[in-house]
Design a protein that fits this description.
Number of strands: 5
Radius of gyration: 16 Å
Strand order of the largest sheet: 2-3-4-1-5
CATH architecture: 3-Layer(aba) Sandwich
Order of helices and strands: HHHEHEHHEHEHHE
Number of helices: 9
Structural class: alpha/beta
Number of domains: 1
CATH class: Alpha Beta
Length: 175
């Protein structure tokens, strides 16, 4: 399944028509969005199609010749933590890839959260650096805007709110 298939077959649930419109607009203007650093946030309950839509956009970005990387937030933090305890060169190489890839998909934003200061600090560093260098991120999350505001710094919250299109999905899981 990809975004074109969804559009053709109209299999997008009616309760998500508004989210679909946001995603369609973002996808239809993908090259401009990628070139200007505009990202996309897909919010809503588990199983509502956020990750499938995000992957569809990554596939489209690859047809434009843009490099992409998809990683779940728990996997991202596990990898960074493991690498940080070993070879510094491998750790820095991985972190530079996160910062430099033209389009980064962070799946399950919020699932990485812990009371450790290191976790939000690393996530914030990546988001802020990418924002400053106009490198877009697609975030999928089950958490609300309020949760982001309460658990991350005002700097991250403002950047995500200001330069990102937001599609809010509703409904029950399709799985």
């Amino acid at each position: 399944m990809d975004f074109d298939w969804l559009r053709k077959h109209g299999s997008f649930p009616k309760e998500n028509a508004e989210a679909y419109d946001v995603v369609k607009k973002y996808s239809d203007n993908l090259k401009a969005n990628l070139d200007s650093g505009k990202g996309l946030i897909l919010r809503g309950p588990a199983g509502t199609g956020k990750t499938s839509i995000a992957v569809s956009i990554l596939k489209r970005a690859m047809t434009l010749g843009k490099g992409c990387l998809m990683i779940s937030m728990p996997n991202l933090l596990d990898t960074m933590l493991t690498l940080s305890k070993g070879d510094n060169v491998a750790y820095l190489r991985f972190e530079q890839k996160l910062r430099n890839i033209p389009l980064l998909l962070l799946d399950d934003f919020g699932a990485e959260y812990s009371k450790s200061d290191w976790v939000p600090s690393k996530v914030e560093s990546i988001i802020i650096d990418r924002y400053n260098r106009m490198k877009p991120i697609i975030l999928t999350t089950n958490y609300s805007d309020t949760w982001t505001k309460e658990n991350y710094s005002q700097r991250v919250y403002d950047r995500l709110r200001g330069e990102y299109a937001v599609a809010i999905f509703n409904g029950e899981s399709h799985r």
